[in-house]
Amino acid sequence: MGYExxxxxxxxxxxxxxxxxxxxxxxxxERECRAWFAEEAGRRGLTLEQDRNGNLFAWxxxxxxxxxxxxxxxxxxxxxxxxxxxGPLGVVSALAAVDLLxxxxxxxxxxxxxxxxxxxxxxxxxxxxxxxxxxxxxIDPVRARALRDGDGVTWADAMxxxxxxxxxxxxxxxxxxxxxxxxxxxxxxxxxxxxxxxVASAIWPHGRWRFDFTGQGNHAGxxxxxxxxDPMLPFAHTVLAARDxxxxxxxxxxxxxxxxxPNGVNAIxxxxxxxxxxxxxxxxxxxxxxxxxRAAAEKAAREHGVEVALAEESYTQVVDFHxxxxxxxxxxxxxxxxxxxxxxxxxxxxxxxxxxxxxxVRNPTGVSHAPEEHAEPADCLTxxxxxxxxxxxxxxx
Length: 397
Ligand code: HGY
Ligand code: MN
Ligand code: MN
What we know:
This protein is an alpha/beta fold. It has helices at 3-10, 28-43, 88-103, 130-136, 141-146, 155-161, 173-177, 232-248, 283-303, 323-332, 346-350, 377-395; strands at residues 47-50, 56-60, 69-75, 112-117, 179-187, 197-203, 206-214, 218-219, 252-261, 267-268, 271-279, 307-316, 319-320, 338-341, 356-361. The strands form three sheets. Strands 1, 2, 3, 4, 5, 6, 13, 14 and 15 form a nine-stranded mixed sheet that branches. It has a four-stranded antiparallel sheet with strand order 9-11-7-12, with helices on one face.
């Protein structure tokens, strides 16, 4: 199955009306994506394995065993109504790069693996890069098992329902020890890249926080304004404060997910849960932004007789990619642009354990995490060639 055919088979999976994707971990759509990957790996004679955490690996093995392996790949899960390229471009390109290496007659001297990491978006269970965090020990398996989706289903329940043992999840040092380096190709998620392919220098520090505003549910018609303890008001103040604080600290802050209880038109809410995503070029700016937003939320909550609690759900420190690997890749590709990103990736999690690098493929509009996400076919094919060049340089010597 060539590059175009792989996209033809993958594109319809998990696409919803409006053109976006809903490929959430352990759901039917994501299981279909896993089956697609297994079939493509099988077609290429790659050895398919699933690790204890639900991550998939397709291996082009060599006689010497799984040492100093070169790993590539990305993820197949999506954000709600996400685009077609975020994640899948890295997986399709890795499979197509294997085809290209074989056409070139490349004989690897070390294993080449293609990874599909689980729950990279954290769209269902709330913690981004959950599969790579579990693999590397960056999250406590007890906490991971208990993570719940919007319907109260835990990671453990969902994993078990898919036929896997949630009690087995946790760090896999042996698997990690066999990986010599990881190179992830990903669609660029901003507008900074003006050439078909670029190389990542860093990932901004970023985190997710949950606000819990608790007030008093009541009747929308009979409750006088002074008698209300409406959690929607401090929530609204907090959304506006997030924009102000991000502007002040040259950060970005987003409140894109809110859960209102009971969510009725004629009922004053009893509770509002709202999530904050904050990112900035440095850690101090992220922390200062969140501190300002927290202060504004607490002040508004007091003024409205509402309680508020803030919980940090995940945080990723700044990732400066491995300089030697980055420079080796840049040299292989003839000096493409080298740029940071505000988007998190499994490469960011693995970079604390193995030399890691990222290739970006141009996104002409910069739109991502939306159905309109797009990359030109010519740029994507240039990305496959670039990935094949990089992998050849890494596996054939
Ligand atoms: O949220 C992110 O930056 C990534 O797409 N998971
Ligand atoms: Mn994403
Ligand atoms: Mn991604």
